[in-house]
Amino acid sequence: MTADPGTRHGLPTTPLTEVAPAPVADVPAPVAADTFKAIFRRHPAGVAIVALADGERPVGFTATSVISVSAEPPLLAFSIAGTSSAWPTLSEATTLTVNFLGAEQVDVSARFATRGVDRFAGVGWHRLETGEPVLDDAPAWVRGEVVQRIPAGSSYLVLVRVLESAQPGATAPLVYHDRAYHQLGDGSAL
Question: What is the pLDDT of residues 12-28, one digit of tens each?
Answer without folding.
Answer: 444 555 666 666 678 88
